[in-house]
Protein backbone atom coordinates (compact mmCIF):
# COMPACT_ATOMS: atom_id res chain seq x y z
CA UNK A 1 0.00 0.00 0.00
CA UNK A 2 1.39 3.36 -1.02
CA UNK A 3 1.49 6.17 1.54
CA UNK A 4 0.15 8.66 -1.00
CA UNK A 5 -1.33 8.44 -4.49
CA UNK A 6 -0.61 10.86 -7.28
CA UNK A 7 -3.56 11.12 -9.68
CA UNK A 8 -4.84 12.92 -12.76
CA UNK A 9 -8.23 14.43 -13.65
CA UNK A 10 -9.10 15.14 -17.29
CA UNK A 11 -11.96 17.50 -18.16
CA UNK A 12 -13.53 15.99 -21.31
CA UNK A 13 -15.47 19.20 -21.93
CA UNK A 14 -12.24 20.92 -22.95
CA UNK A 15 -10.35 18.26 -24.92
CA UNK A 16 -10.14 19.24 -28.60
CA UNK A 17 -8.30 16.11 -29.75
CA UNK A 18 -5.23 18.03 -30.93
CA UNK A 19 -2.88 15.22 -29.82
CA UNK A 20 -0.34 17.67 -28.37
CA UNK A 21 -0.24 15.47 -25.25
CA UNK A 22 0.45 12.43 -27.41
CA UNK A 23 3.31 14.16 -29.20
CA UNK A 24 4.78 15.46 -25.92
CA UNK A 25 4.80 11.95 -24.46
CA UNK A 26 6.06 10.28 -27.64
CA UNK A 27 8.89 12.77 -27.99
CA UNK A 28 9.99 12.37 -24.41
CA UNK A 29 9.69 8.66 -23.65
CA UNK A 30 9.16 6.31 -26.60
CA UNK A 31 12.02 6.96 -29.00
CA UNK A 32 14.03 3.79 -28.41
CA UNK A 33 14.21 0.96 -30.93
CA UNK A 34 11.12 -1.25 -30.82
CA UNK A 35 8.94 1.58 -29.51
CA UNK A 36 7.77 2.86 -32.89
CA UNK A 37 4.18 1.70 -32.38
CA UNK A 38 3.99 2.78 -28.74
CA UNK A 39 1.75 5.67 -27.72
CA UNK A 40 1.71 5.68 -23.93
CA UNK A 41 -0.75 8.56 -24.24
CA UNK A 42 -3.61 8.16 -26.69
CA UNK A 43 -6.59 10.34 -27.56
CA UNK A 44 -9.44 8.47 -29.24
CA UNK A 45 -12.86 9.47 -30.48
CA UNK A 46 -15.85 8.16 -28.53
CA UNK A 47 -18.04 6.31 -29.25
CA UNK A 48 -15.31 4.32 -30.95
CA UNK A 49 -13.08 1.26 -30.83
CA UNK A 50 -10.21 3.04 -29.05
CA UNK A 51 -6.59 1.89 -28.91
CA UNK A 52 -5.89 -1.01 -28.99
CA UNK A 53 -8.91 -1.63 -31.18
CA UNK A 54 -11.79 -2.96 -29.10
CA UNK A 55 -9.83 -2.91 -25.83
CA UNK A 56 -13.05 -2.84 -23.78
CA UNK A 57 -13.83 -6.41 -24.83
CA UNK A 58 -10.34 -7.86 -24.29
CA UNK A 59 -10.86 -8.90 -20.67
CA UNK A 60 -8.53 -8.72 -17.69
CA UNK A 61 -8.96 -6.95 -14.36
CA UNK A 62 -10.95 -8.39 -11.45
CA UNK A 63 -14.52 -9.44 -10.78
CA UNK A 64 -15.47 -9.75 -7.11
CA UNK A 65 -11.76 -9.69 -6.36
CA UNK A 66 -10.99 -12.62 -8.66
CA UNK A 67 -8.57 -12.09 -11.57
CA UNK A 68 -10.25 -12.44 -14.97
CA UNK A 69 -8.70 -13.93 -18.11
CA UNK A 70 -7.67 -11.41 -20.69
CA UNK A 71 -6.53 -11.14 -24.27
CA UNK A 72 -3.02 -10.10 -25.24
CA UNK A 73 -3.23 -7.28 -27.82
CA UNK A 74 -1.00 -7.56 -30.87
CA UNK A 75 0.95 -4.78 -32.56
CA UNK A 76 -1.79 -4.77 -35.22
CA UNK A 77 -4.40 -4.21 -32.50
CA UNK A 78 -2.52 -1.17 -31.27
CA UNK A 79 -1.97 0.07 -34.82
CA UNK A 80 1.42 0.05 -36.49
CA UNK A 81 3.47 3.16 -37.08
CA UNK A 82 2.93 3.92 -40.77
CA UNK A 83 5.66 4.67 -43.30
CA UNK A 84 4.74 7.26 -45.90
CA UNK A 85 6.14 7.63 -49.43
CA UNK A 86 7.41 11.18 -48.90
CA UNK A 87 10.52 10.62 -51.04
CA UNK A 88 8.49 9.35 -53.97
CA UNK A 89 5.93 12.17 -53.75
CA UNK A 90 8.29 15.10 -53.32
CA UNK A 91 11.37 13.98 -55.24
CA UNK A 92 10.23 11.15 -57.56
CA UNK A 93 9.42 13.42 -60.48
CA UNK A 94 5.96 11.87 -61.02
CA UNK A 95 3.13 14.33 -60.66
CA UNK A 96 0.42 11.71 -60.37
CA UNK A 97 1.73 10.07 -57.18
CA UNK A 98 -0.21 10.86 -54.00
CA UNK A 99 0.79 10.44 -50.38
CA UNK A 100 -0.02 6.93 -49.10
CA UNK A 101 0.79 4.93 -45.99
CA UNK A 102 2.63 1.64 -46.48
CA UNK A 103 1.85 1.53 -50.18
CA UNK A 104 -1.86 1.90 -49.55
CA UNK A 105 -1.98 -1.25 -47.40
CA UNK A 106 -1.78 0.49 -44.07
CA UNK A 107 -4.38 -1.42 -42.08
CA UNK A 108 -5.74 0.29 -38.99
CA UNK A 109 -3.63 2.90 -37.26
CA UNK A 110 -4.07 3.79 -33.57
CA UNK A 111 -6.57 6.50 -34.46
CA UNK A 112 -8.20 4.91 -37.49
CA UNK A 113 -11.76 5.93 -36.47
CA UNK A 114 -10.96 9.50 -35.46
CA UNK A 115 -13.96 11.87 -35.52
CA UNK A 116 -16.42 9.18 -36.65
CA UNK A 117 -18.39 9.11 -33.38
CA UNK A 118 -22.00 7.95 -33.20
CA UNK A 119 -25.62 8.94 -33.85
CA UNK A 120 -27.21 10.15 -37.07
CA UNK A 121 -27.54 13.63 -38.50
CA UNK A 122 -28.68 16.01 -37.10
CA UNK A 123 -27.96 14.31 -33.78
CA UNK A 124 -24.52 12.89 -34.56
CA UNK A 125 -22.06 13.30 -31.69
CA UNK A 126 -18.59 12.49 -30.45
CA UNK A 127 -16.06 13.53 -27.84
CA UNK A 128 -12.40 12.80 -27.21
CA UNK A 129 -11.12 10.40 -24.57
CA UNK A 130 -7.42 10.78 -23.63
CA UNK A 131 -5.94 7.73 -21.90
CA UNK A 132 -2.73 6.87 -20.09
CA UNK A 133 -1.87 4.05 -17.67
CA UNK A 134 -4.24 4.44 -14.72
CA UNK A 135 -1.57 3.65 -12.08
CA UNK A 136 -4.23 1.65 -10.29
CA UNK A 137 -4.43 1.19 -6.54
CA UNK A 138 -5.01 -2.53 -7.20
CA UNK A 139 -3.02 -3.12 -10.40
CA UNK A 140 -3.85 -6.36 -12.19
CA UNK A 141 -0.54 -6.17 -14.08
CA UNK A 142 1.41 -6.25 -10.82
CA UNK A 143 -0.39 -9.34 -9.55
CA UNK A 144 0.00 -11.14 -12.87
CA UNK A 145 3.77 -10.73 -13.16
CA UNK A 146 5.58 -13.92 -12.05
CA UNK A 147 8.92 -12.09 -12.11
CA UNK A 148 7.81 -9.37 -9.66
CA UNK A 149 9.08 -6.89 -12.20
CA UNK A 150 6.15 -4.55 -11.62
CA UNK A 151 5.94 -2.46 -8.48
CA UNK A 152 3.94 0.40 -7.05
CA UNK A 153 6.01 3.21 -5.58
CA UNK A 154 5.40 3.73 -1.90
CA UNK A 155 5.82 7.52 -1.95
CA UNK A 156 3.37 8.35 -4.76
CA UNK A 157 1.71 5.15 -6.01
CA UNK A 158 3.15 5.29 -9.55
CA UNK A 159 3.24 1.81 -11.12
CA UNK A 160 6.54 0.96 -12.81
CA UNK A 161 8.08 -1.96 -14.72
CA UNK A 162 11.65 -2.95 -13.87
CA UNK A 163 12.97 -3.73 -17.34
CA UNK A 164 16.01 -5.53 -15.89
CA UNK A 165 13.71 -8.05 -14.19
CA UNK A 166 11.13 -8.32 -17.01
CA UNK A 167 11.52 -11.42 -19.18
CA UNK A 168 8.78 -10.55 -21.64
CA UNK A 169 6.22 -13.15 -20.50
CA UNK A 170 3.48 -10.55 -21.23
CA UNK A 171 1.04 -11.75 -18.56
CA UNK A 172 0.76 -8.09 -17.59
CA UNK A 173 -0.69 -7.31 -21.01
CA UNK A 174 -3.35 -9.97 -20.57
CA UNK A 175 -4.20 -8.83 -17.03
CA UNK A 176 -4.48 -5.08 -17.68
CA UNK A 177 -8.15 -4.44 -18.56
CA UNK A 178 -7.27 -1.04 -20.05
CA UNK A 179 -4.61 -2.58 -22.35
CA UNK A 180 -2.14 0.25 -21.76
CA UNK A 181 0.94 -1.98 -21.63
CA UNK A 182 3.03 -2.42 -24.77
CA UNK A 183 5.59 -5.06 -25.69
CA UNK A 184 8.95 -4.11 -27.15
CA UNK A 185 9.79 -6.91 -29.58
CA UNK A 186 13.36 -5.68 -30.03
CA UNK A 187 14.28 -5.48 -26.35
CA UNK A 188 11.80 -8.24 -25.37
CA UNK A 189 10.35 -6.36 -22.41
CA UNK A 190 7.00 -4.83 -21.51
CA UNK A 191 6.82 -1.03 -21.35
CA UNK A 192 4.21 1.55 -20.40
CA UNK A 193 3.47 5.06 -19.12
CA UNK A 194 5.63 5.96 -16.11
CA UNK A 195 3.60 9.08 -15.13
CA UNK A 196 6.79 11.04 -15.86
CA UNK A 197 8.12 9.99 -12.44
CA UNK A 198 11.56 11.64 -12.91
CA UNK A 199 9.71 14.95 -13.38
CA UNK A 200 7.28 14.28 -10.52
CA UNK A 201 10.26 13.59 -8.22
CA UNK A 202 11.58 17.06 -9.03
CA UNK A 203 8.24 18.83 -8.56
CA UNK A 204 7.48 19.09 -12.31
CA UNK A 205 4.14 17.90 -13.66
CA UNK A 206 3.83 15.34 -16.46
CA UNK A 207 4.69 16.29 -20.05
CA UNK A 208 1.17 15.54 -21.29
CA UNK A 209 -0.45 17.85 -18.73
CA UNK A 210 2.05 20.67 -19.05
CA UNK A 211 1.86 20.75 -22.87
CA UNK A 212 -1.96 20.55 -23.11
CA UNK A 213 -3.19 23.76 -24.78
CA UNK A 214 -6.79 23.10 -23.67
CA UNK A 215 -5.97 23.03 -19.93
CA UNK A 216 -7.65 19.63 -19.77
CA UNK A 217 -5.41 17.81 -17.28
CA UNK A 218 -5.10 18.38 -13.55
CA UNK A 219 -2.39 16.64 -11.50
CA UNK A 220 -1.94 16.27 -7.75
CA UNK A 221 -2.33 13.99 -4.77
CA UNK A 222 -5.62 12.22 -4.20
CA UNK A 223 -5.65 13.09 -0.48
CA UNK A 224 -4.62 16.75 -0.73
CA UNK A 225 -7.66 18.85 0.33
CA UNK A 226 -5.99 21.99 -0.99
CA UNK A 227 -5.29 20.48 -4.41
CA UNK A 228 -7.56 20.18 -7.47
CA UNK A 229 -7.75 16.37 -7.54
CA UNK A 230 -9.34 15.97 -4.11
CA UNK A 231 -11.84 18.75 -4.87
CA UNK A 232 -12.97 17.19 -8.16
CA UNK A 233 -13.05 13.57 -6.98
CA UNK A 234 -14.05 13.74 -3.32
CA UNK A 235 -15.60 17.15 -2.62
CA UNK A 236 -17.65 17.87 -5.77
CA UNK A 237 -17.74 14.27 -7.09
CA UNK A 238 -17.64 15.31 -10.73
CA UNK A 239 -14.52 13.31 -11.69
CA UNK A 240 -15.07 9.59 -12.24
CA UNK A 241 -12.82 6.64 -13.14
CA UNK A 242 -13.11 4.87 -16.49
CA UNK A 243 -14.68 1.42 -16.16
CA UNK A 244 -14.49 1.15 -12.38
CA UNK A 245 -16.15 -2.25 -12.77
CA UNK A 246 -12.79 -3.66 -13.88
CA UNK A 247 -11.92 -3.70 -10.17
CA UNK A 248 -8.42 -2.19 -10.30
CA UNK A 249 -9.26 1.19 -8.68
CA UNK A 250 -7.79 3.44 -11.38
CA UNK A 251 -6.28 6.78 -10.39
CA UNK A 252 -7.05 8.67 -13.60
CA UNK A 253 -10.45 10.36 -13.45
CA UNK A 254 -12.67 12.10 -16.00
CA UNK A 255 -15.12 14.98 -15.86
CA UNK A 256 -17.86 13.66 -18.19
CA UNK A 257 -18.84 15.78 -21.21
CA UNK A 258 -21.97 17.89 -21.30
CA UNK A 259 -23.66 18.09 -24.68
CA UNK A 260 -26.21 20.22 -26.55
CA UNK A 261 -29.81 18.94 -26.74
CA UNK A 262 -31.04 16.52 -29.39
CA UNK A 263 -33.10 18.03 -32.18
CA UNK A 264 -36.50 16.60 -33.13
CA UNK A 265 -37.89 16.10 -36.64
CA UNK A 266 -39.14 19.69 -36.69
CA UNK A 267 -35.70 21.03 -35.86
CA UNK A 268 -36.63 21.98 -32.31
CA UNK A 269 -34.37 21.23 -29.31
CA UNK A 270 -35.60 18.48 -26.95
CA UNK A 271 -34.86 17.68 -23.31
CA UNK A 272 -32.50 14.84 -24.27
CA UNK A 273 -28.73 15.39 -24.43
CA UNK A 274 -27.14 14.63 -27.78
CA UNK A 275 -24.53 12.35 -26.18
CA UNK A 276 -26.69 9.57 -24.66
CA UNK A 277 -26.33 9.51 -20.88
CA UNK A 278 -26.58 5.70 -21.02
CA UNK A 279 -23.38 5.64 -23.06
CA UNK A 280 -21.57 7.81 -20.51
CA UNK A 281 -22.83 5.53 -17.72
CA UNK A 282 -21.35 2.55 -19.61
CA UNK A 283 -17.97 4.28 -19.44
CA UNK A 284 -17.98 6.05 -16.08
CA UNK A 285 -20.69 4.34 -14.02
CA UNK A 286 -23.86 5.57 -12.37
CA UNK A 287 -22.06 8.53 -10.82
CA UNK A 288 -22.46 10.21 -14.23
CA UNK A 289 -26.05 11.26 -13.40
CA UNK A 290 -25.07 13.27 -10.32
CA UNK A 291 -21.88 14.57 -11.91
CA UNK A 292 -23.77 16.01 -14.90
CA UNK A 293 -26.40 17.56 -12.63
CA UNK A 294 -23.67 19.19 -10.52
CA UNK A 295 -21.90 20.54 -13.60
CA UNK A 296 -25.13 22.00 -15.01
CA UNK A 297 -26.13 23.51 -11.65
CA UNK A 298 -22.74 25.16 -11.11
CA UNK A 299 -22.66 26.39 -14.70
CA UNK A 300 -26.02 28.11 -14.22
CA UNK A 301 -24.79 29.61 -10.97
CA UNK A 302 -21.76 30.97 -12.76
CA UNK A 303 -24.00 32.46 -15.49
CA UNK A 304 -25.95 34.33 -12.81
CA UNK A 305 -22.72 35.89 -11.63
CA UNK A 306 -22.61 33.88 -8.43
CA UNK A 307 -19.42 32.40 -7.04
CA UNK A 308 -18.72 28.77 -8.02
CA UNK A 309 -15.56 27.09 -6.78
CA UNK A 310 -16.12 24.19 -9.17
CA UNK A 311 -16.38 26.40 -12.27
CA UNK A 312 -13.35 28.43 -11.18
CA UNK A 313 -11.36 25.21 -10.87
CA UNK A 314 -12.51 23.85 -14.23
CA UNK A 315 -11.90 27.12 -16.07
CA UNK A 316 -8.32 27.04 -14.72
CA UNK A 317 -7.56 30.74 -15.06
CA UNK A 318 -4.28 30.20 -13.22
CA UNK A 319 -2.56 27.54 -15.26
CA UNK A 320 -0.05 26.42 -12.64
CA UNK A 321 -2.81 25.89 -10.06
CA UNK A 322 -3.81 22.85 -12.11
CA UNK A 323 -0.73 20.95 -11.03
CA UNK A 324 -0.92 20.97 -7.21
CA UNK A 325 2.59 20.60 -5.77
CA UNK A 326 4.11 19.92 -9.22
CA UNK A 327 4.38 23.49 -10.50
CA UNK A 328 8.13 23.77 -11.01
CA UNK A 329 9.43 24.66 -14.50
CA UNK A 330 11.43 21.79 -16.09
CA UNK A 331 14.24 24.25 -16.82
CA UNK A 332 14.57 25.24 -13.17
CA UNK A 333 14.52 21.60 -12.10
CA UNK A 334 17.33 20.85 -14.55
CA UNK A 335 19.42 23.72 -13.20
CA UNK A 336 19.18 22.40 -9.65
CA UNK A 337 20.04 18.85 -10.72
CA UNK A 338 23.48 17.77 -9.38
CA UNK A 339 26.07 17.12 -12.09
CA UNK A 340 27.25 13.47 -12.10
CA UNK A 341 30.82 13.20 -10.83
CA UNK A 342 32.11 11.70 -14.09
CA UNK A 343 30.75 14.72 -15.99
CA UNK A 344 32.14 17.37 -13.69
CA UNK A 345 34.88 19.56 -15.12
CA UNK A 346 37.19 21.90 -13.24
CA UNK A 347 35.63 25.30 -13.24
CA UNK A 348 37.47 27.82 -15.41
CA UNK A 349 39.20 30.56 -13.38
CA UNK A 350 36.99 33.58 -13.14
CA UNK A 351 38.29 36.48 -15.14
CA UNK A 352 38.74 39.71 -13.27
CA UNK A 353 36.45 42.31 -14.71
CA UNK A 354 37.86 45.81 -14.70
CA UNK A 355 35.71 48.63 -13.51
CA UNK A 356 34.37 50.96 -16.14
CA UNK A 357 36.35 54.18 -16.19
CA UNK A 358 35.17 57.35 -17.79
CA UNK A 359 37.93 59.56 -19.20
CA UNK A 360 37.97 63.34 -19.40
CA UNK A 361 37.94 64.90 -22.86
CA UNK A 362 41.67 65.69 -22.62
CA UNK A 363 42.53 62.15 -21.48
CA UNK A 364 40.50 60.71 -24.38
CA UNK A 365 42.47 62.86 -26.88
CA UNK A 366 45.67 61.37 -25.49
CA UNK A 367 44.47 57.86 -26.14
CA UNK A 368 43.01 57.31 -22.70
CA UNK A 369 46.15 58.30 -20.80
CA UNK A 370 46.06 60.57 -17.83
Structure description:
The structure is a single chain. The protein is an alpha+beta fold. It has 13 helices and 14 strands. A hairpin with a 2-residue loop joins strand 3 and strand 4 (66-67). The mean pLDDT is 91.
List the helices and strands and how they pair.
Blueprint: E1 6-11, H1 20-29, E2 42-46, E3 62-63, E4 66-67, H2 75-78, H3 86-91, E5 127-131, H4 140-144, E6 150-152, E7 159-161, H5 171-175, E8 181-184, E9 189-192, H6 197-201, H7 207-211, E10 217-221, H8 228-235, E11 240-241, E12 252-255, E13 261-263, E14 269-273, H9 277-284, H10 287-303, H11 309-315, H12 330-335, H13 361-365
Parallel strand pairs: 1-12
Antiparallel strand pairs: 1-10, 2-5, 3-4, 6-7, 8-9, 11-12, 13-14
Domain 4Fe-4S ferredoxin-type: 6-35, 124-155, 157-186
Subcellular location: Cell envelope
Biased composition (Low complexity): 340-352
Strand arrangement in the largest pleated sheet: 10-1-12-11
What's the number of helices? 13
What class would the helix/strand composition place it in?
A: alpha+beta
Average of per-residue pLDDT values: 91
Distance, first to last CA: 78 Å
User: Tell me, what's the shape?
Assistant: globular
The total count of strands amounts to 14
Region (Disordered): 326-370
Biased composition (Low complexity): 340-352
Cofactor: [3Fe-4S] cluster; [4Fe-4S] cluster
Domain 4Fe-4S ferredoxin-type: 6-35, 124-155, 157-186
Summarize the structure.
This protein has 370 residues and is of the alpha+beta class.
Features:
13 helices, alpha+beta, about 25% helix, about 375 residues, globular
Amino acid sequence: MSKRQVAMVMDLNKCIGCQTCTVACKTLWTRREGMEHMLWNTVNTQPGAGTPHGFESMGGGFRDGVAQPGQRPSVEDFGKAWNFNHEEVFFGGKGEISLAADGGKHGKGPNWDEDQGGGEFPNSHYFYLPRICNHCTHPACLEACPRKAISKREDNGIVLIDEDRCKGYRFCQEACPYKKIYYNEVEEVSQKCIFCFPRIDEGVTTACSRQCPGRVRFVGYLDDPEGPIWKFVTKHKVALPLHAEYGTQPNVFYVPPLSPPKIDDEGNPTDEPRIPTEYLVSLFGNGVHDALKTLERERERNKRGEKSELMDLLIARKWLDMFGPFQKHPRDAARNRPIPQNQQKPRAPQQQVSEIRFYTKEEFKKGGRA
